[in-house]
Amino acid sequence: MKRASGQYNAAMTSPRTAVVLCNLGGPDSLEAVEPFLRNLFSDPDIFQFPAAAFTQGLFARLVAWRRREEASRGYAALGGASPIGANTQDQAWALEQALADLKARVFVCMRYWHPLTGEVVAALKAGGFARVVLLPLYPQYSLTTSGSARNEFLRACARLHYSPDVRFIDSWYEEPDYLDGIAAAIGREAQRFSVPDPARISLLLSAHGVPQRLIRQGDPYQRGIEETARLVRARLAWPRVTLCYQSRVGPLEWLRPYVDDVIREQGREGVDQILVYPIAFVSDHIETLYELGMTYARLAREAGVREYHVVPALNADPALIRALSRLVRTALREER
Ligand SMILES: C=CC1=C(C)c2cc3[nH]c(cc4nc(cc5[nH]c(cc1n2)c(C)c5CCC(=O)O)C(CCC(=O)O)=C4C)c(C)c3C=C
Ligand SMILES: [Fe+2]
Ligand SMILES: [Fe+2]
């Protein structure tokens, strides 16, 4: 039940409140790439393994070992580590300031690399936080991201015999400040083209893909992405906007069209200005800076696209922080 109206009132924060920003995490050194991948491929919400956990452990080791070289190339190009930890920490500091009146502490919690969920839950318990808002930095819910973060958080709470009042936030792509922030960021980056005219720019909204099988099983991720794309299109009213998917891993069929196919096709058509916005991400990391910013920049050049730019993720953009702050306040107003 929601409170009918409501100015936030400090008394409502009386139990010690923590906001937990969930993100994927990334290796902080090249040595960490393989163990990070092992954690990722051990996640039952990423790969549902019907057999015993033991078999999943072996599978994770094998796939991590096979993938480590390709993944390391990306992290090496970014200086030997993923910037996702630093970018998420900046978001946490900015959000803590935005919530100063509530005296809420903001924690970063990563799914596959430090600070790992078990470490964060131990700190929350030690700090005596009786109320926790779990806020995944994925605007569109998927079992593989927000769902996985929630499941891991609850497992860690059970392991540590800690039972706070937990408020989960799932999909939040409809937040107006978030959508306004995207439109403004796209508009700013468009100024870098020699002809900064939306009529002359092809805008690609690129989302992280997932296997099509996951969507057939009922995961709402694709619907969330398509809705976000519709809302961004409505705000911009640019003539040429294409939704596509990136970062496919493994042999399965993933959501289409793939961004590399779209770049090649548009190059053949003679498009000479492409702008990419990473619509599933709010923090920069290997998928935006290396995959979109380097690998596909090269591909675009080879395909004959004269100018290609990637819009930075929102990171600690005040518009995003306003959206996150509003989400937390709404979650805290819900009566229990
Ligand atoms: C919306 C966000 C994401 C979804 C959905 C998602 C699904 C998903 N990812 C993999 C496999 C890998 N992902 C990797 C990196 C990675 N993935 C996301 C986000 C989503 N993943 C982020 C933010 C990152 C990068 C973090 C960083 O270190 O900077 C990787 C490792 C890198 C690589 O080898 O390419 C893998 C592997 C699957 C299988 C999946 C859905 C089933
Ligand atoms: Fe991923
Ligand atoms: Fe990926």
From TrEMBL:
A Pfam family reported for this protein in Swiss-Prot or TrEMBL: Ferrochelatase
InterPro entries: Ferrochelatase (IPR001015), Ferrochelatase_AS (IPR019772), Ferrochelatase_C (IPR033644), Ferrochelatase_N (IPR033659)
Known catalytic reactions: Fe-coproporphyrin III + 2 H(+) = coproporphyrin III + Fe(2+); heme b + 2 H(+) = protoporphyrin IX + Fe(2+)
Xref: CDD domains: Ferrochelatase_C (cd00419), Ferrochelatase_N (cd03411)
Protein origin, superkingdom: Bacteria
GO cellular component: cytoplasm
Alphabetical GO biological process terms: heme biosynthetic process
GO molecular function terms attached to this record: ferrochelatase activity; metal ion binding
Keyword annotations of the record: Cytoplasm, Heme biosynthesis, Iron, Lyase, Metal-binding, Porphyrin biosynthesis
Enzyme Commission number, as recorded: 4.98.1.1
Compartment(s) of residence: Cytoplasm
Binding annotation for Fe(2+): 208, 287
Pathway: Porphyrin-containing compound metabolism; protoheme biosynthesis; protoheme from protoporphyrin-IX: step 1/1
Xref: Gene3D superfamilies: 3.40.50.1400
Broad class of enzyme this protein falls into: lyase
Coiled coil regions, renumbered to chain: none
Cited function: Catalyzes the ferrous insertion into protoporphyrin IX.
PANTHER family: FERROCHELATASE (PTHR11108), FERROCHELATASE, MITOCHONDRIAL (PTHR11108:SF1)
Entry's family note: Belongs to the ferrochelatase family.
The protein, known as: Ferrochelatase
Native source species: Acidiferrobacter thiooxydans
Gene name of this polypeptide: hemH
